Amino acid sequence: MNNLFLLLLLVFAGVALMVVLGGRFAKPANPEQMARLRRWIIPLVGIMLLLSAIDFYW
């Protein structure tokens, strides 16, 4: 049980560190870069959902 609490504490600390550093050093993306990313992310999410459904029902 102590290992679980230690693991949860480490995960929480890592996420908090990413949020703090991302808020401090991240720069906003320009619209062209967002359009390029969106062109890839939306089909990849669709493929992931399809493969997940196939894995669940197979």
TrEMBL record:
The chain crosses the membrane at residues 38-57. Keywords: Membrane, Transmembrane, Transmembrane helix. It comes from the Bacteria. The keyword Transmembrane applies. The keyword Transmembrane applies. This is Uncharacterized protein. It comes from Sediminihaliea albiluteola.
